[in-house]
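INFO worker-7 received task bundle
INFO bundle size: 2
INFO processing item 0
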Amino acid sequence: MGLLGQKDEHTFILRNVSVLDSGNYSCVYSLTKHLPDNVRTPGHKSIQVQVTGILLVKSAVIRSGRTTVKKGEDIELTCSTSESEKPALLHVYICKDGLGKISGTVYNQTQTRFSIKDVNVEDSGVYSCVYSAGQYDISEVTDTERENSILIQVYGIRLVKSAVIRSGRTMVKKGEGIELTCSISESEKPALLHVYICKNGLGKISGTVYNQTQTRFSIKDVNVEDSGVYSCVYSAEQCDISEVNDTERENSILIQVYDISLVMTVSVSPTEKVDIIGNPTVKPGENLQLKCIISGKRELGDIHMYLCKNGVGVKMELLEDKDEYTFILRNVSVLDSGRYSCVYSLNKHLPNNVRTSGHKSIQVQVTGVKSAMIRSGRTMVKKGEGIELTCNTSESEQPALLHLYICKDGLGKISGTVYNQTLTRFYIKDVNLEDSGVYSCVYSAEQYDISVVNDTERENSILIQVYGEQL
């Protein structure tokens, strides 16, 4: 309502409109003052105003009785629109990871319940709720802000816990056997436990133990396909092996199976040994020089010198009437750490077909960690919400197993292990103001205690700010 003196017109301004302000607008006047909500105007001239755009949907509060759900169960989600003056009809949308997933229509209600039945591990994600007075196709709905969101995690088995896994050998010849030992180390364990060996995070072997803290598993007649990251989990409940997964892999080992029939071994005469000289420690970004020297007498002529890392050829150089050669590895990273040795042959082989064992070698350690790209969907986060961070290692030739670390203000905060992945997601729940800071991501082929990890360079970093009820 506006009071007009001697004027015949007035402009009403509705500030910061939302989709709830869509509707049919008209004007009337009276000599008598009335409360605006007591005024009714049927049959007058009007215009239809539509606040358009799917980006203008409004955020609702979302709740769930559980944030961890077992595969095959149901998720119940409640959206609270909490509008003091809402239109009678509202369209409500559940979003997963910012994209529309479920829609519903409510009439004269502030709370709406949705149920997702028979959930799978792929249903894990960040859920949020938005609503609008206008109806949209679910494929068009997005919630990039996620002002109110919850993380739902769906897992295969309930109460699964990580066990320590060990193996006498991590390099195994095709046709041989792998023996794995799981150590449960529970101070108060139930008499009966179900133990599961996982390969690359998926259940592979199961066993049952009674009043034991150590369990041994044997995989016989292994093949190259049995190579992978092995871990061990256990539970008081018995589950089908197809449902078991170990996404955390807190304790894991890398087992590599090789086929001797595919390997050309370079033989070296006992009187013609090859020495290797080099610096055993180097920093990331520096150059590593490794000198191979043939000690003892040999007939002059052309030979092929191979530099091997962890028993596998990585470089080759043709030597013409020479007994030594210096290999240079430029701009090394932590991925170049390993045991290096040299062999030679009169015949030329592909370097990765060359295998060495029992030769002189040196252990080279590239100390430190390498920077990864870090991203976040939001850099302004409300207290109590969650931060989702994505690390991109983007290595053209990375090892199967990598250890990643999220750093805050240069100091290690979260760690994780990944296998054959370039993208890794981390989630920090229920953030506080103290979680504000500069976040970066580093990685290494070696595992470090989180307390010793630091990122002083911070080549790639983002500033995350956590705020209270009001900015």
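INFO item 0 finished
INFO processing item 1
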Amino acid sequence: MSSRSVSVGSPGRVAFTAQEKRNIIFYILGIMAYKFALESYNGTIKALALDRLPKSERFTYTGYLDGFNQAAQCIGSIAVAPLVRRFHTRSVLAVAVFVFALISSVGMIVEGVAGGRIIDGNVIDGKWDSRGVIPMFVAAGFSHGTVELIRRIIPRDIVGGNVIKLKKMDALVHIFYEVAGTAGAFFATFAALKLGKAFAPVVSPFLFILAAFLWSRIAVEAEKDQTLSAYEDRQRENLFVAIGSAFAAFGLAIYEGGRIIFTNRRFTWLIFGYSIPLVLHRYLENGLGANYAKLVLKESAYGSIITGGSNFGELCGAGFVFVFTYLIKTPLPWLRLDAATLSIVWVMHKFTPASTGLTPLATAWVLGAIFIPVSMGWAAGDVSLAAFIQSHVSRLTDTNPKVSPLGAVMSFLYVTYIVIYAIISPVIGSWLDSLPDATKNQDYFFWIGGVMFSACGVLIFLSTFWPKGSFAFNPTLEEDYPEEEDMEENVAHIRDEKKGEMLDDMF
């Protein structure tokens, strides 16, 4: 049994044990390497697709590229449950990111074999079918989905179920995660301009391998790991049967989640409050930002600069939620902020190097800065919504005992996002390809960046008035949806801590 370390000077303040500190260090270093590599790879692979795919079907193909990748992430996440029951969680995480390293190197190998070279600073493209980038990116989605889900459950392996420890660890991890993501996105632009799009993710395989090594060094206590991994079931269940069962259970979870959402007023609005904003945010980065770089700035590599600004906005949004956790008790004010900031995207309709007198590179930096408040609003809403869903779904009683209510609701919302994005991404891409060159930019950014995003913002804003007691400027919903007593005690306990000491006692 592991001992808990509690600081003497401040009653109730829980400190990390020496082993937990060691594990947190390895985990944060690993996640920074992973996020930097991920942003570098994703940014350059999208730029490669925009440059190399046939012009007549360029945006249709990139739409399928994004849609299929998101679907693959969903499938990869489903496979996590049977894998972590059979193997150590940290081992599954390390292997998944190592496979990601191998996949991320395929494009560079193909480019080199096909004659791609860098001679005296000049990039010579290889001769190969550029549509091959689609299966590469889809394959990367399977590993991406596995890693993204595991990294959300492994903190419990590291610090156990202590609420205060989890909050502290999550806050610190999120800060370093977004810092690394911002740096990785900016680096992707530099690498693409110097090495060419195909060779630009040269550091990604090495950083993925580094992340795999660091995560493999996490020493989880035996009793915690056995509780999560269920060693006793490993020899009794065939892995492929387990994966098949996981897909069946996932289908049941989606059905149960839909039933909960559409039969409870407090959750019905989450489709517009959670799934739709997530679709818009992904398309803002993967669609509008990338297409703006190609169509307006004439350099697809600049899309990573815009994405970097968006990542920094996510960091700011998470920070605002962390600071105002106890002042703003529900996600509704943050969602209203998100809905309002969506109108900022209108600027893409008229914001060009010619209209501002800036160079294309400077324009990319300015647009990245403009994206900061847009992504800040989304991230603030997303982070606060997760806590809202967890706290309210946990009190449901009329649910299927075979399915976790929280898992069911989150599965339904996630699949809703995947399905919508997988449909609209290629549809918008095909429509964009069909537009005449003379009006392509104006029509695309007017109807998608302007009309569509603003209309969705109105729907999101209106949906925040659907729950009972939501008409206040800063609603609490306590009268209609009272919190559990033990949850109130936890909140009161955390509120009494000095905010300035939240990170001081991490290490």
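INFO item 1 finished
INFO post-check item 1: The CA atoms of residues 323 and 499 lie 8 Å apart.
INFO post-check item 1: Residues 1-12, 222-236, 483-507 have pLDDT under 50 and may be disordered.
INFO worker-7 idle
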